[in-house]
Amino acid sequence: MKREFAVIGLGRFGGSICRELSMEGMEVMAIDHDEDKVNEYKNIASHAVIADSTDEASLKELGIKNIDHVIVAIGDNIQASILTTVILTDLGIKKITVKAQNDRHEKILNKIGADQVVHPERDMGKRIAHSIISNNILDYLELSDDHSIVEVKAGRKMRGNTLVDLDIRANYGCNVVAIKHGKEINVSPSADDVLKEDDVLIVIGSDKDISRFEKHLVIEN
After folding, report:
1. Pairing of the two strands 147-153 and 137-142
2. What's the rounded mean pLDDT across residues 26-45?
3. Of the candidates 99, 137, 131, the residue with the CA atom closest to the CA atom of residue 118
4. What gap in Å lies between CA 16 and CA 125, rounded to an integer?
5. Residue 114 sits in the same domain as residue 141
6. Distance, CA of 23 to CA of 105 (rounded, Å)
7. Shared-domain flag, residues 129 and 183
8. Are residues 44 and 100 in the same domain?
9. Coil, strand or helix: which one is 169?
10. CA distance 91 to 74
């Protein structure tokens, strides 16, 4: 069963998260109080709705309690960001990620129940979207418009297999350039190396191929 996400605030950052999650095939509800912004995402997100996120009744009516992960990407209105986070915490949302404007805002968000606080000035939307999709995706770095490098944990679908067994290059078009185990890093992994629980793979490839690799081997429902 697909995890469901909601993105509240469809500015540049929230829009980037919404687009990336939608491109990865996730169910996304896009929420903003601005009708023009909502209309922009009607054909991108699974659902796009006009709502005031500081109104608890409105969020309940949208069925926000059924959403697995809510991303609060409200722009310059720190008060709305804080109030929205408080409401989501009170409603028992499983995971809440919130965009912070500054370090002070981050401290408040951490105190009121945010599970993850991000700074869009430091973290790009694509990188955050991939980390949101799975805890096994540790880092994501764009090399060009359509190629990236990703750092992933060896999840249960990979553990106990060798690189030959998984044949990541043939099946997904990606290359494993290194394997990290604790403080050690193996920059020329053998095809016969067995992947262990704490191993981290550094994989390079086109965004399309990395997406297929993540869906089949990394993301665990």
Report:
1. antiparallel
2. 95
3. 99
4. 5
5. no
6. 30
7. yes
8. yes
9. helix
10. 19
What is the per-residue pLDDT for 128? 74
Confidence (pLDDT) at 66: 94
- The whole domain housing 23 covers 4-118
Give the total residue count for the chain.
221
Average pLDDT, the chain: 88
> Could you give the CA distance from residue 217 to residue 143 in angstroms, rounded to a whole number?
22
On whether both 128 and 112 belong to a single domain, the answer is: no
Return d(Cα 31, Cα 50) in angstroms, integer.
Answer: 6
Whether residues 69 and 100 share a domain: the answer is yes
Are residues 16 and 41 located together in one domain of the fold? yes
User: Which candidate, 123, 116, 88, places its Cα nearest to that of 13?
Assistant: 123
What pairs with residue 98 in β-bridges? 72, 117
Q: Give the residue from 176, 216, 220 showing the smallest Cα distance to 199.
A: 176
**Residues 164, 70 share a domain:** no
Query: How many domains is the chain partitioned into structurally?
Result: 2
> With contact defined as beta carbons under 8 Å apart, do 27 and 4 qualify?
yes
**Contact yes or no for 13/19 (Cβ under 8 A):** no
pLDDT tens, 85-131?
999 999 999 999 999 988 889 999 989 889 999 887 655 666 677 77
**100, 118, 136: which is the final residue of a domain?**
118
Residues 73, 116, 201, CA angle at the centre, nearest 5°?
A: 110
Last residue within a domain, chosen from 71, 98, 118: 118
Q: Are 54 and 80 in contact (CB under 8 A)?
A: yes
Eight-class DSSP state of 159:
T
22 and 81 both lie in a single domain: yes
